[in-house]
Specification:
By secondary structure, the chain is of the alpha+beta class. The chain is built from 16 helices and 36 strands. α2 packs antiparallel against α6. The protein is elongated, with a radius of gyration of 39 Å.
Length: about 850
């Protein structure tokens, strides 16, 4: 990856022109830069002191790691922001295309309405000079029908009905004075081979409205192919109103993002913030790449443009979703701010070590930091073992402390990096969960509209009002239901029932067995008690024979007498094909990645739909009550354990769409859940490992003398131990250790040190401590002991960390006790200094005792002993 130098730090080229806007990255850079100045001074002092401690290599190691860390933090910060605006841009266009797909069905079906046909026939019989007021009653009736339609399908603000010449026969908005339209839309609607005509531009149907979204189609004598056209019907969509709702759902409080919808030429047709980006403006597209930096109106933005994914093969007019975020505010939003409240530390630790979420490059950064710090600690520790000058020792420990402070900054920035990655994923599943339940609300809004509008079908009302219903009448009803069901395939069947709840007709021949069945469900009785054409009833989500014994919703509306609207004649029921439809909604809301799945549940936890094979519709899902109790319209995310894995789970509670579930008296809360796998749950036996306190002031008990002894201390797990410094050769890294056949368990193996083969032993098992799984983190202290014939030998002891090397007065040295079961490998115990902050006992080990009592004869007889 190409790079450039930013303020003395080499970072990836992708961050050019962007990194200085990242406040968190810049803060860490400044902090590390200040520490770098201290490093430069300590390096010089180390060279001047004569301690033989050259810190140049360690300094370069930290500098290289600084570049890698800041680069990765910058890239992940950029990736998170780019994903956020990309998701919003995609949804902004796709959610609208889904909506407009339904509109293409609306115009085709409404154009076949018998009342509209009859009115156009009467209108066509007028002489050219006759006024339409001649049809005043019929006009009032058809306009009332338009009002009924828009009361249900509230996405429209006007309906216009014209004859074949463009003369306006009737319209919903009677305040408009236009008598005729000359829009090419009319001739296109009369001749098109498609099922609809869609325009978004200025039209003389709506003068002064600017660009308008209109759907049109011809009205013919009958449904037969080639039937004579009677006129043209046009539905006028509430486009800007719809986009306001879409943008409101996608933007949060304090969100600087500007969301726009563009036509295929890049012209803005809708904007979430016209103060920043006005309608009609031309926007530089950011297609293809994850993001682009674009300039607009003298300001730089991080931008993303998305083509629609389409819906059911429908792609509309080629519109584009576009999101723009001012660069100076692009990286202010911190989704990880409350991450600690949502995710336990142990869970976060497990997730951060899993390769599915964190790349090798990301996971290697803390390992590199630990390795460099361990190397530094070892160098300083060895220097102190060798050095007797007090000032040199202080310098060495200052070097170590500078390294520890540097590592602390690394740890904080690495933690920030990890949280950036995890919070980005949590934000993604949260966003997708809210999207899933919003798609559901929008879809079921159409179902509530359909049943109410179809209940107003004149033929249904006329036939059900008859004292006797003939077989031909029932056949007519069945044909109408079949025609509707052929257009609206989201239903498995439609059926009509009488005032006693007995099914009279169905839409599909395969369901003829339902005819004559009397329905006793509570929703049927509720429907038959309703005479308001705006009301509808929905069954509970339950198994029903109407859906082959499977779970679904049945939407129903009462059919009333044309002459007496308060007289209920029966009802229409529409059976939603819930299994494939809900599954498709969830699939369309899944984030990328293997193992992701979605679930719709009721507040009780009952499963409505799921894409997970291990879950079944109707079963209860055991999940945190915080998801199930989400307020309507709210969303959240957590990392939870599910079926032996950690998952990032996003949840969103339904809030309805337009009047549906908002002010129509229907309440049915649904929670959308999206699961993304993170890591397997493994039993983690956390090892207690101590490190030297870098803030500790390492003082000397006295300035020197024969009544003092230096103790080189170290840590094995939580144990603080030591060996007299005079017996220590040096500390080395645990590497190139090979097994010794037949050696005792505590002997890990052997290694070569200065051309001499030496044994490496461990004390963890003797102290009943778990042995580290990762041996690369171990240090090995090489100590001298008297071998056979008083020959000086060397043995290596595995330790977790190196400690201080204090000078101890003999007055604090107690040689009268042994503490490890009296086995003789404890040299002495160091009692705490009176008034000292550190009050624990220090156990000093005897190398000879260790080799004699722990290795035994097997060690003594090996060539390396």
């Amino acid at each position: 990856m190409s790079s450039f130098v930013y303020r003395d730090v080499r970072v990836p080229e992708d961050l050019r022109g962007i990194i200085h806007y990242m406040g968190s990255v810049e803060r860490y850079r400044e902090e590390l830069s200040n520490l770098g100045s201290q490093w430069d001074l300590l390096t010089i002092l180390g060279q001047m002191s004569g301690t033989g401690t050259d810190m140049t290599g360690t300094r370069e190691g930290f500098q290289n790691l600084t570049s890698e860390l800041l680069g990765q933090l910058g890239l992940e910060t950029l990736k998170k922001t780019a994903q956020d605006i990309g998701a919003k841009a995609q949804v902004a266009v796709d959610i609208v295309i889904r909506n407009l797909f339904e509109r293409t069905a609306d115009i085709g079906f409404l154009a076949t309405d018998d009342d509209i046909r009859e009115f156009l026939r009467s209108f066509g019989e007028l002489d050219a000079d006759e006024d339409v007021s001649f049809l005043a009653d019929a006009l009032d009736s058809i306009v009332d029908r338009f009002h009924e339609y828009v009361a249900k399908y509230s996405v429209y603000f006007d309906i216009v009905l014209m004859d074949t010449s463009g003369k306006i026969a009737a319209r919903l908005d009677r305040t408009r004075a236009e008598a005729r339209s000359f829009d090419p839309l009319i001739s296109e609607a009369l001749t098109t081979r498609r099922d609809y005509v869609e325009i978004f531009r200025e039209t003389d149907l709506l003068p002064g409205e600017g660009d308008s979204l209109v759907y049109a189609y011809r009205v013919t004598e009958s449904n037969d192919a080639g039937s004579k056209p009677l006129g043209v019907l046009a539905l006028c969509f509430r486009f800007q109103n719809e986009m306001e709702g879409v943008f409101k759902k996608l933007r949060s409080e304090g969100d600087w993002a500007v969301l726009t919808l563009l036509d295929k030429s890049g012209r803005v047709i809708a904007s979430s913030d016209e103060n920043q980006v006005h309608i009609g403006a031309r926007i530089e597209l950011a297609l293809g790449a994850d993001y682009r930096v674009v300039r607009f109106a003298g300001r730089e933005y991080l931008a993303k443009t998305c083509e629609t994914n389409g819906y059911e093969g429908f792609f509309g007019l080629g519109w584009l979703g576009h999101a723009m975020l001012p660069l100076e505010h692009a990286f202010e939003q911190n989704g990880g701010r409350d991450l600690g409240l949502r995710v336990e530390d142990r869970v976060l630790s497990a997730v951060m070590n899993d390769p599915r979420l964190f790349s090798e490059a990301l996971r290697s950064i803390p390992v590199q930091a630990d390795r460099i710090q361990a190397e530094l600690e070892r160098t300083v520790w060895n220097g102190n073992v060798r050095e007797s000058d007090a000032q040199s020792k202080v310098l060495l420990w200052n070097i170590s402390d500078a390294g520890a402070r540097t590592k602390s900054v690394f740890e904080k920035s690495i933690g920030n990096l990890h949280e950036t990655v995890v919070s980005a994923l949590l934000a993604d599943v949260e966003f997708q969960a809210a999207l899933a339940v919003d798609i559901m609300d929008r879809n079921l809004y159409e179902r509530a509209n359909d049943c109410r509008w179809w209940a107003l079908t004149s033929a249904f009302r006329r036939i059900l009002a008859q004292p006797e219903i003939s077989s031909s009448d029932l056949e007519e009803i069945s044909d109408i239901l079949a025609y509707i069901n052929g257009l609206y395939t989201v239903y498995t069947t439609l059926f009509l029932y009488d005032a006693r709840g007995r099914i009279l007709a169905v839409s599909k021949k395969n369901d003829q067995g339902l005819v004559g069945v009397s329905l006793s469900d509570s929703w049927v009785a509720q429907t038959l008690s309703v005479h308001d054409s705006q009301q509808y009833t929905v069954s509970p989500f339950e198994a029903t024979e109407l859906y082959g014994g499977r779970h679904t919703y049945v939407y129903s509306a009462s059919i009333t007498d044309i002459a007496d609207h308060k007289k209920v004649l029966g009802g229409i029921g529409i059976v939603f094909d819930s299994e494939p439809q809900f599954a498709a909604m969830l699939e369309d809301s899944m984030p990328g990645g293997e193992g992701c799945f979605g679930v719709f549940v009721e507040r009780s936890g009952a499963i409505i739909s799921t894409t997970a094979k291990s879950l079944r519709v109707g079963d209860h899902m055991d999940i945190d009550s915080e998801f199930l109790s989400l307020p309507n319209g709210e969303k959240t995310s957590r990392i939870i354990v599910f079926e032996g894995q950690y998952y990032a789970v996003g949840g969103g509670a339904s809030s309805g769409y337009r009047e549906y579930k908002v002010n129509d008296d229907y309440q049915n809360d649904v929670i959308g859940l999206v699961f993304a796998p993170l890591a397997e749950v493994r039993e983690q036996q956390a090892r207690q490992v101590r490190r030297r306190d870098a803030s500790m002031q390492v003082g000397r008990a006295r300035t020197g003398g024969s009544d003092c002894v230096e103790i080189a201390t170290f840590y094995i797990g939580p144990k603080w131990l030591g060996i007299e410094a005079s017996q220590v050769v040096e500390a080395v890294r645990y590497e190139k250790v090979t097994e010794i056949p037949g050696a005792p368990k505590i002997v890990r193996g052997k290694t070569v040190y200065r051309n001499e083969v030496i044994p490496i032993i461990e004390l963890y098992s003797e102290m009943r401590l778990p042995y580290p799984q990762d041996e690369s983190q171990l240090q090995v202290i090489l100590v001298k002991y008297a071998g056979t014939g008083d020959t000086e030998r060397i043995v290596g002891i595995c330790v977790d960390a190196l400690g201080e090397i204090p000078e101890i007065c003999y007055s604090r040295v107690d040689t009268s006790h042994t503490v490890l079961d009296g086995k003789g490998y404890t040299e002495s115990i160091i009692k705490p200094k009176p008034g000292a902050e550190k009050s624990e006992l220090l156990v000093v080990l005897s190398p000879e005792g260790l080799m004699r009592h722990l290795c035994g004869r097997a060690c003594a007889e090996t060539k390396v002993a």
